[in-house]
Amino acid sequence: MPIEFEAPKPITQTQFALKTVAEEMMRPKSRYFDEREHEIPWDYIEFMHTAMKAMGGSALAPRDPSPSSPLPQGEGGRGEGEKDKRPPIGYQLIAAQLEALSWGDVGMYHCLPGGGLGAAAVYSAGTPEQRKKFLARFNEDKPTFAAMCITEAGAGSDNSAIRTRAVLDEKTNEWVINGEKIFVTGGDKSFTDYEKLGRGFIVVWASIDPSAGRAGMRAFVVEGGTPGVKVTKLERKMGIRVSDTAAISLVDARVPFENILGSAKVERSTTGFKKAMATFDATRPLVAATGIGVARAALEFLKEKLAENGVQIRYGLPRQKLTNIEREVIDMDVMLKSAWLMVIKAVWLADNRKPNALESSMSKVKAGDACTKITQKVVEILGPLGYSREFLAEKWFRDAKITDIYEGTGQINRLVVARNILGYSGKDLR
Amino acid sequence: MYSFDPTEEQQMLIDAVKKYADNDLRPAAHEADESSELPKKLIGKGWELGLLQASIPESYGGFGERNAVTGVLAMEEMAFGDLAGTLAVMTPSLFAVPILLAGTEEQKQTYLPKIIEGDWTPYTAALIEYIFDFDPNELKTTATLKGDEYIINGEKAFVPFAKDAKMILVYANLDGQTQGFIVPKDAKGLTVADDREKLMSLDALSMYRVKLDNVKVPAANRVGGASGLDFELVLASMHIAAASAAVGVANAAFEYSKDYAKEREVFGVKVAQKQAIAFMLAEMRTEIEAMRLLTWEAAWKLDQGREDAANEASLAATGAADMAMMVTDRAVQILGGHGYIREHPVEMWMRNGRGFATLTGLAIV
């Protein structure tokens, strides 16, 4: 297909539908939940769960997140027998959905029921039996959550420094896990027993052989309510306050042997770990898309306010003729549009099963920059109106910052891009 | 659908242009810049690639159809070799494309076959004026209709190959609108300055001031006849050309400084192994990609006749100009003192880089 920039119909349709959701279900509650941290947005969760079921399963949850693991038939993937000549647009669709929801409220987007990153790990690293066992729950009557526990106090971007341990108890054929996890997005809703929610799970990263370094790292599915596991703290954050960020401690937590994702045998190679990290190639542009949603919200709001106050943006004039505000807005347009195109290209590559490690990280670098700069500029230009909590601009400024941090900080992604373009390993460029 | 793959035909063209850029333009660039001279043979070889010819329909002597996306793909690839050489090769487009876009049937029949048949011939255009606060939408050069003639007065600057040109497409202000007029070089009242323009870069491209003192042309010489041309569309085509050339130059600087950083040793490691440098390179690569995609999208919108195409093109032009300045500046910085020495091409690219904010009107696709 030649170079083309026409959004496919399913994408424009979903953007249209989700705009209504954002306007009706998210925006009116944005401020309320921002000011009541740790209150759970039940109405929204239940509405979204029902809506998504009506649309056919957890349509909004990232499915099949790893290009290397096509979903088998009956699990939402396209089976061998199905002959569909249309180019796949699964990732593009998700990117557009996340962008649209984050335009509504990026914190509430995180409260979208479904498997999230936890399920993504099961999809990409699990066996067909594990997928069946752990993922069916997301289509049940009650909204259900899953979360990923990877970060520790001493292991953030450098997640090979993880100290959580999993030891096999051969007598009971159970893994015994000990450790402390932090920054678990949705950890509370995934683990704690709430009447309105189905039983979720957390995916815990732990070492089964510390002497093997990265090669010994594995992910384990830990069911909600498992004894020995406790949500010890809910973080209080700068932004995305409606989304719970949990600290979880595991003390002699026992999980069945078959809850390990990947092989229980340690080979002295890091291919397994690298494969797990490859999950991020798929999810990075999606996180970038959430940043772009926030930035678009802020920029559109600014343009509205400028128009209300009779300030026009004269596009197409030479630079020296423009006012400062016009230049700022034009620069923001350039940032936002180009960042979105980078996201689209990265997910388009994933949809077409082409390598996209470079494009994924570049899109995250660009979107992180664009999102933080745009929201900061918008607050600045709006002056008191921007700084006041009466409008949402200041909230978007606070929300935006996280998109340059999670799923790889801007700096980690620069490192990934640099290694990629220079052909360097982690050793060559530390 | 979204898609980022060039067609097979476009890919073949890109490959051919790339070969020319790598094997011909780049090796000649330094000498051309120093001697202020582009060899005729070099320009001729670029002309034989047939970029303009391929964008003109058979009925006017060409063998294709204008496609802005193809145009920006080729432009980027050629500018990767050398900007001055690229602008020289593409100069006849400055005259032909506006006629193709907006000319009357008669103008197309009269001029297009002549321009593209045979060797590269300097048909050119004059848009820029040497004044403070220059704005292509508010030209100081004027055209006035008197009887069945337009009378043109003013002074144009940076007109490529004006000295050898057969015809010049002169942009002038007609009742507040920028319009194009076909002016023979030997028209009475038209004088080309003796000395070439002296700019901070593009020395290899011979450019001149052109004075128009009561120059009279028949009314039929207005591009598009009585209804004129849609200058917004012409300007948009100039904007995407400049943007794609900016991407090409920036990419040249990025690749060169990247290779240098992988060779050069500091404190026992390659300079590229320092995060301070590696991060610069990562950002350069990221911004190049961002502006490449924005330019492609603007070109695609132009091809589709989208309403917002002109705005998108201006965003691409302004974004790519900023990007090219940033990238070329960093390329010089990465080479350090060596970057400042003219034996390395990065300082030339940095001088090129600043030009994209100013030189709208020197290229069109």
Can you describe this structure?
The complex is a heterodimer of chains A (430) and B (365). Chain A has 430 residues and is of the alpha+beta class. In chain A, helix 3 (90-109) crosses helix 7 and helix 9 (357-382) packs antiparallel against helix 12. Chain A is built from twelve helices and nine strands. Helix content of chain A is 47%, strand content 13%. Chain B has 365 residues and is an alpha+beta fold. Chain B has three domains: 8-116, Butyryl-Coa Dehydrogenase, subunit A, domain 1 (Orthogonal Bundle), CATH 1.10.540; 124-227, Butyryl-CoA Dehydrogenase, subunit A, domain 2 (Beta Barrel), CATH 2.40.110.10; 231-355, Butyryl-CoA Dehydrogenase, subunit A, domain 3, CATH 1.20.140. Chain B has eleven helices and ten strands. In chain B, a hairpin with a 2-residue loop joins strand 9 (265-266) and strand 10 (269-270).
Instruction: Determine the number of helices of chain B (DSSP H or I, runs of at least 4 residues).
Output: 11
The CATH architecture of the domain at 271-422 in chain A comes to Up-down Bundle
Number of strands of chain A: 9
Major sheet of chain B = 4 strands, antiparallel
How would you classify the helix and strand content of chain A by structural class?
alpha+beta
Average the pLDDT over all residues of chain B and give the rounded result: 97
Q: Cα distance, first to last residue of chain A? A: 39 Å
Highest CATH level, the class of the domain at 271-422 in chain A: Mainly Alpha
Would you identify the regions of chain A where 5 or more consecutive residues have pLDDT less than 50? Answer: 58-82
Radius of gyration of chain B: 20 Å
Helices of chain A, by number, come to 12
User: Which series of helices and strands of chain B comes N to C?
Assistant: EHHHHHHEEEEEEEHEEHHHH
Per the principal axes of the C-alpha atoms, what is the gross shape of chain A? globular
How many beta strands in the DSSP annotation of chain B?
Answer: 10
Could you describe the largest sheet of chain A, including whether it forms a barrel? 4 strands, mixed
Assembly context of the chains? heterodimer
Low-confidence stretches of chain B: none
